[in-house]
Design brief:
Shape: globular
CATH class of the largest domain: Alpha Beta
CATH superfamily of the largest domain: Glycogen Phosphorylase B
Structural class: alpha/beta
CATH topology of the largest domain: Rossmann fold
Helix content: 25-40%
Largest sheet: 7 strands, mixed
Order of helices and strands: EHEHEEHEHEEEHEHEHEHEHEEEHHH
């Protein structure tokens, strides 16, 4: 039998944001591939509701393995934090949401030399890059070439889905979820048309537009808006936005808005999605868009902008609806210096989005809740089984770096 391949896996696995959740899914699937000896770095010891006790125990076993020289490092952190080893084959996982990567030396005030805060320079030092879409691959290649840096080998992988969790089923009778509720008295019964989204409060996800669109799309007496975020200032923002919209559309009643900012396990997230009659994203750019894939895996109707990785996930009108978009220069901010005004993302057309929600609502009134089998089937390529098949092939093609192998 061949010696196990020793892998150092580096990622912020104990956090609750999207990269952390994807990294744990990747780690879980890697740990079920035969002949891999994985040691984990990046766990800060804090557990949250998104990590099950069994998963935490498995992670701790991989953290507590003795130190050794790895054959391969897999690093799923911000590219400026990539630390390639000279005695191992280094793989970086990169995803990005605009047409160009940050390619400037950015001093983010953390005492590190500014050069290390340059995405392109650090990416070019890796032996191989894994990314989640052709859109990301093109952005990486174009950006590195534009500044004269060598382009590593780039492979497209997909964050794996546990198909035991992410599969279609009927939604439950009540929307019984923990969260901040706005404009709602009592439980939401199944007869309500539920428009849902998942995302953070930032310029890219543009939840302000999501609220504005939903408030004028459907009869508010027949509709509920559900938003899953992880920003704990959500309640204040929603109240402000509702007040603004009421001023714009004076005299028109506002539908109830449910905001959930608590951490949910994968099982609870799947239960939440099952209540949605339509999933709508107003995001302006995505390197993959895991919530979109999750919604489709459950057979949900999806409406998203025709940009970035979306057209690779929603390949035809049976799987979902892609609305037209308008190019928009990215706005930079001190909070996220990686976004720069030389980058472009795309704003989904609000009128088209409203019309598509209305069409879905009319169909719902006529036929009731419906599972979109085409959307579900389109996500089977993201299964853990497909992921492991892909990774086995990629790892088998890697040649040892050290001469003593």
């Amino acid at each position: 039998m061949n010696n196990p391949i020793k892998i150092d896996f580096v990622a912020p696995i104990s956090q609750t944001f999207g990269v952390s959740i994807c990294s744990r899914r990747i780690l879980s699937s890697l740990s079920n591939i035969e002949n891999l000896d994985i040691k984990v770095f990046g766990f800060d010891g804090n557990l949250n509701n998104t990590i099950s006790s069994d998963e935490a125990a498995s992670i701790m076993r991989m953290i507590n393995k003795p130190d050794r020289i790895p054959d391969i490092t897999i690093q799923y952190v911000l590219p400026p934090m990539f630390t390639p080893r000279t005695d191992a084959y280094n793989i970086g996982i990169v995803t990005w949401e605009t047409n160009k990567l940050p390619f400037m030396d950015l001093d983010i005030g953390n005492g590190i030399h500014p050069a290390i805060n340059n995405w392109c320079k650090q990416i070019s030092k890796m032996n191989e890059i894994w990314t989640f879409s052709e859109y990301c691959k093109n952005a990486i290649e174009t950006s590195l070439k534009s500044v004269g840096l060598p382009v590593p080998k780039i492979e497209i992988i997909f964050p794996p889905l546990d198909t035991n969790i992410w599969k279609p089923s009927v939604k439950e009778s009540d929307l019984s979820v923990i969260g901040v509720t706005h404009g709602l008295d009592g439980p939401v019964k199944q007869k309500k048309f539920i428009i849902g989204t998942v995302g953070e409060w930032n310029d890219r996800k543009d939840l302000e537009s999501f609220i504005a669109i939903c408030m004028v799309s459907v009869d508010p007496r027949d509709c509920v808006i559900v938003m899953k975020t992880r920003n704990h200032i959500t309640g204040e923002k929603v109240n402000d936005l509702v007040r603004e919209q009421k001023e714009k559309i004076a005299g028109i009643p506002v539908p109830p808005i449910i905001v959930i900012d608590s951490d949910l396990s994968e099982e609870d997230m799947a239960k939440l999605y099952r209540h949605f009659d339509v999933y709508v994203s107003t995001s302006k750019g995505e390197g993959f868009n895991m919530p979109l894939v999750e919604a489709m895996s459950l057979g949900k109707k999806v409406i998203v902008g025709n940009h970035s990785a979306h057209s690779e996930i929603v390949s035809n009108s049976r799987e979902g609806t892609l609305v037209s978009c308008t190019p928009e220069l990215v706005r930079t901010s001190k909070k996220n210096p990686w976004f720069q005004p030389y980058q472009v993302w795309h704003k989904p057309n609000e009128i088209e989005t409203v019309k598509e929600i209305q069409n879905t609502y009319i169909e719902w009134k006529k036929n009731g809740p419906k599972i979109n089998e085409a959307a579900h089937k389109a996500t089977l390529k993201f299964s853990e089984t497909k992921f492991r098949e892909k990774i086995r092939g990629l790892l088998s093609s890697i040649k040892p770096v050290r001469m003593d192998k």
